[in-house]
Amino acid sequence: MGAKTAPFDQQRMPASSSDTAVRYRERRQQQTQALAQLDCLKGVMPDTLARLAACATLRAFVPGAIIVNEQRPIAFLSFIIRGSVSLTLHDRAGRQVLIGVLSRGDCLGVATLFGDRFRGATVRAETVCYLVQVPLTEVRAMLPGSPELERALRQIYQQRLVEGTLGRVPLFSRLSPAERIHIARALRPMQYSRGAIVLRQGAIGDALYIVMSGQVVIEQNGQVIAYLEEGDFFGEMSLLTHQPHNADVRALTPVEALALPVQNLEALLASRPELAMQLREVVEQRKAASRAIRSDAERQAQLSAMLEHGLRRGTHILVRDLSLCKPGCRICEDACASRHGAGRIHFSGLTLNGIEIADACRQCRVGAECVEACPEDAIVWNESGALFITDACNGCGACVPACPYHAVDMRSITPPHQSPLWGLWQRLQRWRTPVIPLETDHQTQQRANKCDLCHGYNDLACVSACPTGALRLVSVEEVFPL
User: Fold this and answer.
1) Nearest to 352 by CA among 262, 479, 454, 170
2) Which of 4-18, 289-303, 362-376 has the lowest mean pLDDT?
3) Whole-number Å distance between alpha carbons of 385 and 388
4) Nearest to 165 by CA among 216, 199, 209
5) Rounded to the nearest 5°, which phi and psi values hold at 289?
6) Which of 52, 105, 393, 421 has the most Cβ atoms closer than 10 angstroms to its Cβ?
């Protein structure tokens, strides 16, 4: 397996042994001091460090062992006590990119900790490594009462976010980690709300913009001609041609971007002529794509439908092959309703490239409107990246109008009936103490209802029930490659 595991706090304190109690306290103090010496935890209060040590596990990895796979969710925050690890990921062109090498005092897992379950890097042990791992559930529980811990970890998160974003951009992925770090120092972080105009057609360009998170659309004279997301960049045409921007760039979701000022970009291109050539190739490709889509009415309609129905908001969608599905068949919808007590998927005839798209939750990766609208924080992501509704839902219904794709509704929940004897006791009590009834017995409650890809089950009810294999959960790239 490449790893050995032992509790960081290896012994428990017998209640009857005062000597053991002393040794236990000394060992706990040593563990806390060991964490305090890590650079990533500088300034964190001792009691918080002690809580981390109490729920931590020490793991050892041999050289070459894969500690984290970029395609799998992370369950732990890991602190490097000894040794070094390499971080690699794949850029938008599919090439493996070295992001950097981390050693003692660094930590892993901060991206997942702060809610970003859709980025990842592969972490490989370069030497014999010792990691202290704390479950992310435990760390999240500590953050509200430990602002210094949240501040320290969020600073690391921001740094990794910038380095990872640059690594995912093919234009910069060929650079060395040191060169990317140099570029990162010149980047200006930018934030835009949903619907905001990031760049306006006719304005003079002053920076190259890189999408760090979120999604934007490119609109030329009011017509959508392109769609960009995490790892894409824009604004380069104006900088290279010294002409005003030829299109608007509008934020489809809340967007975090990195702006590289024109003077820094020009210095980079002057020192790396191959990057200048690569950037000009991108410009020519985008010009050709823009001309093609403006002359292709079907492609325009598909792009508009994709945006209107939110097909790129998540990573996967439910689709069915109509050639394998009998007309009027509702087996998948009935299976969904049977499992969950109410239907969560429907089909209204939306087809793209020969397949029908299910009307269901898009599991929006960024800026999910239902999450923003929920006053109880009852809609959360699971480890697979699906949004599910927790028991914190109070039935207020705020998420229903918030969803732009009509994927959330309300369903009735009737509380379970009490036992006959308990019901008789309640009636006797009401007879002895007459009151004005303010609520009816067995009051029906409401709860939000949406597809969560069968959270808590090992299969998708709709897909499992399909007798012909017509229904599938597929990558959005398979339906609408961009």
Assistant:
1) 479
2) 4-18
3) 9
4) 209
5) -65, -40
6) 52
Per-residue pLDDT of 137-179, as tens digits, reads: 899 999 999 999 999 999 998 888 888 889 888 889 888 998 9
> pLDDT for 370-419, tens place per residue?
999 999 999 998 877 899 999 999 999 999 999 999 999 999 876 555 55
Global pTM reads 0.79
Cβ partners under 8 Å of residue 197, min gap 6: 248, 249, 250, 251
Rounded Cα distance between 347 and 387, Å, is 20
Q: What counts of helices (H) and strands (E) characterise the chain?
A: 17, 25
What region, left, alpha or beta, does residue 456 occupy, with left being phi > 0 and alpha being psi -120 to 50 degrees? Answer: left
Give the pair of three-digit tokens for residue 147.
């602002």
Closest Cα to residue 316, out of 461, 477, 459?
477
Alpha carbon separation from 16 to 20, 24, 166 (Å, rounded): 9, 13, 57
Task: Tell me the residue type at 368.
Answer: A
Structure tokens at 430: 């009401």
Beta bridge partners of 78: 108, 133
213 Cβ partners below 8 Å, 6+ apart?
116, 161, 230, 255, 256, 366
